[in-house]
Amino acid sequence: MRTPADGIPPIIAVDRGAAIPLHQQISTGFRSAILRRTLLPGQRVPSSRTLATELSISRIPVLGAYAELIAEGYFEGRGGSGTFISRSLPEPPKPRQRPFPRSGGALSGPRPLAQRAGLVPAREIHPWMRGWGAFGLHQPAIEGFPFKAWSSLAARHSRNPRATLLHRLDSLGSERLRQAVCAYLRTARSVRCEPQQIMIVSGSQQALDICARALCDPGTPVWVEEPGYWLARSAFLSAGARLVPVPVDGEGLDVAAGIEACRNARVAHVTPSHQFPLGATLSPARRLRLLEWAQRSGAWIVEDDYDGEFRYESAPVASLQGLDQNSRVIYIGTLSKVLFPSLRLGYMVIPADILEAFTAIRCAMDIAPTYLSQEVLADFLCEGHFGRHIRRMRSLYRERRTQLVAALAEHFGAGLEIHGADAGLHLTATWTRGEPDREVATRAARDGMWLWPLSPSYVGDAPRPGLILGYGSTAAAAIPQAVRQLRNLFPPAAKGRAR
User: Fold this and answer.
1) Phi/psi of residue 131, nearest 5 degrees
2) Which of 206, 370, 393, 479 has minimal CB crowding within 10 Å?
């Protein structure tokens, strides 16, 4: 197997004034690197000419060292391919593992961290977070992505990159992509924007982090949906904000409850098109009341439109930002759910009067987004691939959603209440009492199912257990069997319990 270090000269020190011949110094250096596992079996070593140039010596001692290492079995030559670390070397004994030191104070004295480093709970990798497949959350149908078209566009920009784009570092992102995103948002999401208001970001999480840094001081009260998106909470906690959980019901965020809990909050984070995780759509009356509250109190609304493209029982819902007459809404969108997660591209629409502050923060974070993926995505949008992909995926996800709802009804009956099945790539199933959702999710992971428990979505105690079931990455034909597996994780008495 090739490694990232194939053919790269290792660090070998040679001393021309030493009594030891140069070829022995080189061979000793290679042996030590191999025994330390710095160089691995099957890894290519640099040509004798390359290493001689690197060490600024004649090629003759390098050739001598290579011949010696081949004779001893450390190197092997492959005709026409080069010289490699021998694959037949025995595995060295593994060193005894020592416990990882959680605190190095005794080793090196005080090791201070910023207070904000302790504000966010340590990230735990739970069993249900480790796999790809049945019920995985935020997992789109990768097999439906038009990789041929994407690869062609990527090759086009890789073969003929424009020097001006390679040198340009614009913290807002590619102008071509911002224009394409602007046209899409105006048409598909009823967002009121101009290209110069749009910032291309590394996914919605970076957008949330920028919002938190720009809008929050230590102790700043922030409304968050209860239950809500845990990574949004982490972004605001990392800025020192004080979270104010606001309950969610069938009409979305309960604005009146938020005002009663903290009228003077500076920020409200909402998912109005498809509330995460319960799936409600923020009602028109609450949208207007939320905008009125923000204007009266001088607050900001962060609209997280993470999967607004996918609705199955009605036309897409217009954005909250499009109703805003006072530029109080910062709109966030992501392409990870629509295209593929590792793309890590999203966008923000920022009110003009605070754009400079947001741009300065972005520049301090990572200067600018990467060039190539932006240019490819701009063409993907402008040439119609994006629109066609959305239409195909909407039909595919509707079929998978319908199959999942039917299978849950067949195998659980009234034992589960379904929430948010009209849109998005997931639905949530709750029950009144009995099995703790974390235990169910842990058992499911042992069976190769990657459903998420509902309870971690709450700041406080969850009023009832539940499961967040993604269906984007599971074929419709495989869903009934997956639901049968899920049913078997519950005790018999829990399978038909009325809600």
Assistant:
1) -125, 170
2) 370
pLDDT the model gives residue 306: 87
Burial class (CB in 10 A: 0-12, 13-18, 19+), 109: exposed
The span from the CA of 199 to the CA of 435, in Å, is: 44
DSSP, residue by residue, 103-114 = --HHHHS-----
CA atoms lying within 13 Å on the CB side of residue 198: 25
Return the pLDDT at 1: 45
Dihedral through CA 81, CA 82, CA 85, CA 89, nearest 10?
60
Distance in angstroms (rounded) separating the CA atoms of residues 151 and 157: 10
pTM: 0.84
Strand segments (E) across 420-461:
426-430, 452-453
Q: Cite the beta strand spans of 358-398 per DSSP E.
A: none
Task: Give the C-alpha separation, 261 to 225, whole Å.
Answer: 13
H or E segment at 200?
A: strand 198-201
- Compute the distance between CA of residue 205 and CA of residue 221 in angstroms, rounded to an integer: 20
Burial (CB count <10 Å: 0-12, 13-18, 19+), residue 343: middle
Angle at 328 between CA 182 and CA 262, to 5 degrees: 140
Q: What is the pLDDT of residue 80?
A: 79
> Which domains, and CATH codes, for the chain?
1-92 (1.10.10.10), 127-138+388-495 (3.90.1150.10), 161-383 (3.40.640.10)
pLDDT means per 10 residues in the chain (499 residues)?
58 88 94 88 90 92 94 89 86 57 62 83 76 85 93 90 75 95 93 97 95 96 97 95 97 98 98 95 97 98 90 84 97 88 93 97 92 92 94 94 96 93 93 88 90 93 93 94 92 51
